[in-house]
Amino acid sequence: MHIKQKLILAVFIFGLVFSFAPRFFVLAKSEGDREIFFVEKLYDQNQRSQVEFRLVKISNNAYFYVESNWYLTITDQERGLINQNLAILASSFDKEIYPKLTNFWGSEWNPGIDSDSKITVVFEQLNKGVAGYFNDANEYLKQQSPFSNQREMVFLSTDVLKSSLAESYLAHEFTHLITFNQKDRLTGTSEDVWLNEARAEYSPFYLGYDGQQNQYSNLQQRVNDFSNKPSDSLVIWNGEESDYGVVDIFIQYLVEKYGQNILVSSLHSKKTGVDSIDEALLSRGEGKSFLQIFNDWATAVFLNDCSLGDVYYYKSKELMNLRLPANLIVLPSIGKTNLSLNYSLMPWSSNWYKFIGSEGDLKLTFNFDSKALFALKYVLCEIKDGCSVFGFDVSDSKKELVINNFSQHYLSLTLIPSVKPRFSNAAGLGDVYSFSVVAQTSNEPSKFQEEELIKSLLAQIEQLKIQIAKVQAQLLAMGKTNLVCSGFQTNLYFGLSSSQVSCLQEFLKNQGPDIYPQGIVSGYFGNLTKTAVINFQEKYGIASTGYVGVLTRAKINQMLLPTQQK
């Protein structure tokens, strides 16, 4: 998370540039030293603006400070574990995070405003859900920024010291520190928030932290965040989980298809955001605009199928199973249809609309908002021969599409529109852009067809009644038989279907309505199960991710042990 501060420039330092910033005499620091730092009140757990910290660890490239009161009030056993984890993190920073990220992105400001080659890593009690932040105000003199700590520093939550994602969070925030030097200082421009965060999200993946076995990774969390709100705008930043989700999943695609240098080149450009990506694409001789690539990506997260072309799937094993559902639109099977649908999209966002049903020809008439530029892919899935992808860029506000004998040849038609403002200006980012679709079919039934349809529907109703009765009987039988949970040896996560998920749901159900009020045992790990897992994790002090990883499985298995021994 990057906080951009407005600076107060005193008259006597007007025109001061970084290269002439005064150098300070660096006092030797020792473990055990205490210092008071300015902190960001918005994120501090107790809304403080100043906090005392203790220097607990010094490594080759960093000072590691921990909030004094918190560090002294935890138990000796907890403090020993914290010290052990901090030593591991310091080693990872020196051996992996610092050398690899500075080699890839470029260096942070070094020796920086404090004339010290080491950066400062501060562990503060932050609000729930805030893993860390970088405040660029600390990179300026106090005359420019009164609440500056005048050092290269990043802040992390004390909870990170107990997390398996500590290296990922530190890599993320350190990337913001690098970006400030490479973008703000060296090019004189300030990066768009979404792209600044996208680079920071990519760093853990670049370091290999998202591919480690038996670890709940930052990328796995972002897949969940994206799946919960896939139509979120790429460029509008509200600091929500969905914002991190969409930038991470998109940037993974962009780098996979167009190379890591896209991100590096855009970082060193005087341009920012989408314009800097377009510039990097042009320098590579790519024939597609950023909007076309964005629309390709929106199609890839829906299909994720390598048989349809390189641009419509993820190669990485972490994302190869990602597939988004579409909004389903059922057209009447017979009769004349004239269905008008009105939608709106935020800038740099997409959505997915799947049409099924109908007889005869299907005609779609589009009307697009003239204040925006649209790209639209449509996916036709045939009854026998799989799916094909087509598309067009919208050059005017109206477009027609006719599919002959739609239901005779095709199972579905899915529309995937993406949108960008026609004029690139920050003031327009809060706008939404409308488009409408009129679906028309004309297949009038004869009187005989109507009678046959009624008979068919009545027969289907009777069959459904029989099936409902069978399912009710099965559910009743299931309610009388508890699953036997003998322990969990593999990780469980959102979107998974298995007998182990059923066992997990039965376990959560037995924990009471405070944990899993619905008590549904379906074998599918959906949103209700994820919420129940979070409730369980919060109750027992485990990181509340909704992912059943090593720590959560260990706690469940421990609770199951007495049952297994009976």
Quickly name the level 1 CATH class of the domain at 1-190. Answer: Alpha Beta
Mean pLDDT: 87
Low-confidence stretches: 6-25, 478-482
Strand order in space, largest sheet? 1-6-7-5-4-3-2
Q: What is the CA–CA distance across the termini?
A: 50 Å
Q: Please bin the fraction of helical residues.
A: 25-40%
Shape, principal axes of CA atoms = globular
What would CATH call the architecture of the domain at 1-190?
2-Layer Sandwich
The number of strands is 17
- Strand-residue fraction? 15-25%
Structural class: alpha+beta
Total helices: the number is 14
Main β-sheet: number of strands, strand sense, barrel status? Answer: 7 strands, mixed
CATH-defined fold name of the domain at 1-190: Zincin-like
Q: What is the radius of gyration computed over CA atoms, rounded to a whole number of angstroms?
A: 28 Å
